Each structure stands twice: as structure tokens, then as C-alpha cells.
């Protein structure tokens, strides 16, 4: 499988890494050719981030060799990696919001005790980089004022500024709109044409197929396949990642809509500093339909879910959930919403949906802890809770099936399945779901989406908030797009396409 | 993937790790003792004998442990709700005020069977009320509970001095203490109780408050791990957003946790005033509230661990006093240093031996 024609910018040989009993990377070997874009794909926990962290000096391999430009090197810290011309752009930006682009650029490379010299040199260098790579950013703009796409460009510039010739990007498109993602891919192509070597870690097959020259597939810590991008397709890659055939299409029945279960009229939410988080939100969710809320993260979706679930009272407007009217003067709490039959799978499972330190059995009753059959005469019934959790695990295929294991010891997908199981177990009338498959592996994604559709077919009113357009498109019967705290458009699922939705998500108002 | 080390076996985590911490503390103590010219092994022997060498010393060790159990539980309950209650000292002290007021008002009328439970309730209620104010300020006004509980220790102390000197002082007395309580308000001493069933032990300060402390342990265990309120409280402590999501009322739960915490701290007053002093005195809470933080940390917030940690600190307190008596070179302050080192190694440096133990058990496993 190895090609000896092109030079290898990076070569990893037999890299092995264990974290305690977890064998994260098993004898992985790969070559990244100079001046190419190489994609690394794999499910969560497949070891791709660990492997790249080893390359970047964040972890040390237990065994194996790293070669940069053909020479064996030791990577004891990111400093070594930078010294060898390797730069990494992390999924979460490492920028100081209140600093300018220029100040961020020289952070950690100030070039002397006085800033002025460093800043001037950086300004010249930035102009050169902008010219050479088409990465134009205003050097004096405050990072906080930049769009997410521009912030990412600053991250890339930071890496290039430090002399990187090999660029590793970890899930770079997680926070971008489709348009911004396209622009990013454009930049990556340009970088490649200028001789930069790019390694792209992602789980989005669309990006892999559109931009890379070569794809490396990892599964359970091993490199299981290497493909020329031109000679593969999404199904092939997905099958390699999961190890079995995966079906992307959900083949849903047409919806059979019933009565309106959740209605919002002119809802607004203004925080204590007067920032308008939600603005004039009106929507209906009917029994037997899935309404999808699309939008770039941070445009009010989280707040909308909180208001609809009763966690935060609205400051204006009103809503009606299963016959209960809620407005600023008549707030509701999440416990009452549960009583009404409104279940909620929160966006952030580790911070809201479960307590990592709790046992799985404790997680399986979060929010229902004071109800029968878990609690009678003010005392909780441990065995009943354990049995209930075991039942849920069986029905929703949560692995391992160990109610006595800490919640944090389950993988993201299994945590999510457990939360979904908890919320769906009581046959709710309304199901609110935030980011149903964020950080969840492909096998579980398939399962979770099918469960949501099954719930819809059983007559539940489902509202799904997701930043993954592809997820919204495959799940929703009706799509609402949020931007800046408002609903800026509504599209029936059949008429939706990524481009129009993407424009709405970026704030271009559509009819 | 961030948890890069395997978890230790349970018995190592709760048994061996604390022992390793204590061993390290004693190693440093030994060096210091050597430095001031005392044979460390001789000192250690005196310390151990002083703590558990006779039925009298065991009695005193258990008596101190009683206080530490109460304050350790107090800190632990608040800690499970994510609240760092530094105010055990003041809550115990004000608990004593409640206890004293109840007894001074009613000990002429009520028989012991009513008087003692009432005094216990008053201790708990006053302790709870004193903790409720910082809790309210935290939950509704956003004042940080660490700051407010510390300040409330000073307020409690000043308030008690004022009341003892000006209001509650026994008529004609020169020392600021109240009149003696009636015999009906005395919690029976352990010596008297054991004699009653035919076991002879030397008299000591140990009294039946120890049973109350153990009962409180069981109660805390049931509350935290077997009631929906305990569940909500722990959810709040681990993950406030999850608690909010679950429909737990964060403000009320904060208040509940602190009130329970304060009520438990009030147990010190029962042990000290009803069990030993039999009158209201100044500064009976001396240091127990603060040491309770170390007890709770060392006991990992679990009642069983707290009992064990309280026994250790009780033994240090009692053995240290004996050590000071036998070897004057080891002053009272030295004994505090010893305690401080144990706290340092089992509190702040609790994870120090962890990598070694992990390496040890990783190789075995």
C-alpha cells in the first residue's frame, strides 16, 4: 500500500499508545506525502486524535517511530513539533478574545521583552502570509469582533507564523457554517498548492471527499485502510470506519400530524445585561412530526431549548405546552414540564444530561428521582432503580450493560443512548432534543436517529436542535432556521437544500 | 481519553492511600522531632500510648472523635452540595447558644427525658439558623459562601463574648460562664453508663453524645444516598446545570444543605455543654470546626471514612496532649504542627502517593 514515489513529510511507524487498560493506538503506521492533503477519519475513540497528539508532542508513544522529512525525531513536547515545522489547529480556538489579531499572532513568540519590535515584524510577516496564502485578516481587529470563520483563519495564521510547513487540523469545521466550511476547504487547497502539507482530522465524509488526496481510516486504534480519495466514496469509508455496512437514509414514512402539543408565540428572552437572546420566536410542534431547528451554534438555539424545557422563564411572549400556559408571570419548572409529558434530551450531555461521577443507574433516573417506582415513602429504592436501568440498557442497547458503572466510563454514544432512553421511556407527549448525535460514533448515530423517528411515528411531537445540517435534513419534517436569536426562515423538509439553509444560517434573510 | 491512568482498586483508594498519606506525614514529623533533639520512636510510642494506652486515654480519644465526627459530617454534607462550609466553628458555637438558652430556661421544669432531646434540637436549630444566613446570601444574593461563613465565625465569636460577659454570666461570677445546668440536662457519661451494665472503665470526658454522632453518620448516609433530596443535593454539588435540568430547586437545595450542615455542627455543643461542661462557656468549639474540614477531606465525604478520620484526629489530639505532658520540649505548638502536617499530607497533598501506587498496581495487574 505504501508508495515510494512521493516524499513523506511525515511517517509514523508502529505507533502504540495505552492509557492504562485502554489501548488507544495499536501499532499504527502511516505516511503523509509532502504537499498533499491527507484526511484521517474514524469514529470517536478510534485513536485519530491520540495519534495526532503523539505527532504533535502532547502525548508520548509507548512504542514506535516518528519520521519528519525522512529523519527520525523525538517529540517530547509541542515545542519540538513546532521546531520540526509541525503546527496544529485545535477544534477549540486558543485565542485571547480581547487581543487584536496581531497580538494573538505573537503570543508565545513575542520576540523580546518589548512588544513593539515583535509587533512590527509580525505585521510584515502577516502581510506576506496574507499575500502568499490568500489569508486576509485585518491585523488590528479585535478577535472578539471577528466571525468564527475569520477566527479560524487567525488560528491557521498563528501556526504558519511559527514557520509550520505541516498543518494538522482537528475537526476544523465543527463550528462553521457550510459556506465558511467551503471557504476553509478553499484555503486548504491553496495551502497545498503552495507546498504546505495538510492533515485533516474529521468525521465529516463530505469534506474528506471534496478536499483530500488520500484518506486514512482508523478503527479501534488501528489504521485499517488507506485510500486514494478519487477511488473511494462515502459508503465505502463509512463501512471501513464502522466495520459493517451503514445505512444513511432513514426511509421515514410520511408524517401523520395530530394536534399541536407545543406552541410558542412571540417568545423573547433578554438576559440581565439586556442582551436579547431570543427575539419574537413563534413556532408549533404537532404530534407525529419532527421539527428541526438549524443554525450555527450560538444563535439562540440553546436558550430556546432552555425556555421550552422550563429551565429558564421567557421574559416576553408566551408558550403552551400540553395545555399549560407559560409566560414571564407564570413560569414553569423542569419538574412540572416532565409531569406534563415534556421530555428533554439536553444539548450538553456531560454538563446537563448526566452527572459524570454518578452511577449509570443514578443517571437513568435524573429528573425522575422522586417518582414511583424509584422512590416510595421518601426513600429511594436502589434495587428498583438498578433493575430499571438494566431494562433501559437492554432496550436501547447501551454498552456495557452495567448499571453499577460510573456514567463517565461510558462512551459518548452510550451516554447519549442512556439519556435518550431515560427521556423516551415514559412515552412523552413532547420530546425536545438538543444535538442528538454530537460526539457520538456512527453506529450510535444511526440508532439514535431511528429511535427519534420511531418516537415520531408513535405520535410524539419532536423538536430537534442540531448544528449538523445533514442531521436536520435527514430527520426533520419541517425545518426552522435560527440566526441571532430569531427564526429567519421555515422550509419544508422536501424543499430544503444545504445551500439555501446555509445562507439563512449565515444571516442572509430569505423569504 | 483525558483520564490517562487506570483507577486504583477500591480498597487501595479508601484504605491504602490515606495510610500512605499518614505515613508520609509521620515521616516528616519524625524528622522535625529528631531535629529538636527528641528520639522520634520514643515520641511516637508516647503518642500512641497516650491515645490508646489505657481506658482513660481511649475515652478521651473517643470524646475528641465525637466532636470531629459532628464537624466532619457538617463539612461533608455541604461539600456534597458543592459548598465549602468554613463556618462549622461558628455554627457549633451558636448551636451552643441555642443549647444553653434552652437548658437555662427549662431545666427547672422539664425532666431529663424531655430536656435533653429539646436541648439537642435547640443546638441543631441554632446551628442551622447560623448556617442559613450565609446560605441565603449565597443562593439569593450571590455572596461567596467561603467568605461569608468565615466572617460568620468572627461574628459568632464576638456575639458570644458579648452575651457571656453581659447577659448570660452567672450572677456574682468573675469568669464569663453561665450558671451550672441542672442534673436533668446532663448527657450521661460513658463511664456511668458502662458501669450500669457492669463494665468498669476509667472516668473520662466521653459521654453518650458519641452514640448521637454515630446515629448522625447513619442519618447522613441514608439522606445523601437513599433519599431523592440527597440525590438532588449531590447532583447540585457535582453538576449544577444537571440539577437545574433535573428540576431541582437550586436555591432551596443550597439552603437545605447548609442548614443540615449547621445542625450537624451544633452536635459539638451537645458533646461539650451537655456532656462535659454542664454550663455555657466561652470557646468550647475551639478549633473543632476547622479540623472538621480535614476530617471530611480525609474521610472522602463518606460517613464511614469520617468516623475513621475522626478517630485518627481524636487520637492525635489526645496523644498529642500526653506527648506534650511527658516531653515538655514538644510544646503544645509542636502538637499543632503534627496535626497540621497530617492535614497537609491527607488534604492538600492527598494525591501525592497516587502515581507510585498506580505504578505499583499497574505492574501487578
Please provide a written account of the structure.
The complex is a heterodimer of chains A (511) and B (365). Chain A is α/β, with parallel strands linked by helices and 511 residues long. Chain A folds into three domains: 8-242, P-loop containing nucleotide triphosphate hydrolases (Rossmann fold); 247-341 and 428-511, 3-Layer(aba) Sandwich (Rossmann fold), CATH 3.40.50.300; 353-426, no CATH class. Chain A contains 17 helices and 22 strands. In chain A, the strands form five sheets. Chain A has a six-stranded mixed β-sheet with strand order 6-7-8-3-9-10, sandwiched between helices. In chain A, helix 14 (412-424) runs parallel beside helix 15 (442-457). The longest helix of chain A has 19 residues, at 115-133. Chain A is globular and about 70 Å long. Chain B is mainly alpha-helical and 365 residues long. Chain B has one domain (54-354): Orthogonal Bundle (ABC transporter involved in vitamin B12 uptake, BtuC). In chain B, 74% of the residues lie in helices and 0% in strands. The longest helix of chain B has 30 residues, at 112-141. The radius of gyration of chain B is 21 Å and the shape is globular. Chain B starts with 9 loop residues before the first helix and ends with a helix. At the A-B interface, helix 10, helix 11 and strand 18 of A face helix 9 and helix 10 of B.
